[in-house]
Amino acid sequence: MLLPTCAKGDIVTNGISFQEHRFSSSDGLQLYARDYGHADPQTAASLPIVCLPGLSRNSRDFHRLAMQLSTQPQRPRRVIALDYRGRGSSDWDTDKSRYQLPVEAQDVLSACENLGIAKAIFIGTSRGGLILHFLAAMRPALLAGAALNDIGPVIEIAGLLQIRHYLQAQQPLQSFEQAIESLKKTHSAAFPALDDDDWADMAQAIFREKDGVITADFDPALIEPLKSIDADTQVPDLWALYQGFQTMPLMVIRGENSNILSEATVLEMGKRHPGVKVVTAAGQGHAPLLHRPDLLTDMTAFIDGIS
To answer: Which of 89, 90, 205, 232 could cross-link 60 (Cys pair, CB 3.0–4.6 Å)?
Structure first.
């Protein structure tokens, strides 16, 4: 979907603008971010929000959430959404070994430095939540609070295997209508709560038109580390890094049908952080769409409870 541009590099969609930013990583890649609410003087009075997407996803995943949070009447927020290296409008890395969590965490720090973010509330979906575990250890003062969307210190191997399967199975398509049908075929059993607009938005976020075909918008090399795992693979846990969240407000969203974040892990997260706010995304799997009305209410309450 092509969006009209306006002055100063802003993009306007549905009457709401965001600014596009391109900046350099510490090792010289050109990375991309969307900046919502930057032009509203009211947003300067509140903490900004930084949104971190999943493994193969990008800033477009957060478009509807960012529009909602940046225009809410009583307390609009500045919302930043990032494309990591190898995703969306950011450069692909020629050194594929650098597609790893500590490097991507450093890229988030570079983004915050370039965009003037000294402290923010962070939302991390899936891999974005894993990156937040690293940031909580690397730069705890940057995080005023964190929301982990369907991710925690323990990742279920069955979920990783399913992610590998559907990412490897994605083939170029002829239209976005085909992309929507492909997503429904793969994910509808885990996401009965989604409506037609949600599926259309998901397709626009995941896929991009390139050379006349619709393709997934990420470097295929991202899948390589998943190719070596099997049902017996022991995935290292991140409980030691999870301790970094002890000093800040924490929210955990679990998809009711998630196969990545188990109920047992969420229970243990609550024991180790007694103040954690736990929310179940009814009728959603991995990973929940946060702009849905039930989750938006909980997200807004959590965010406004911080500052």
So the answer is: 205
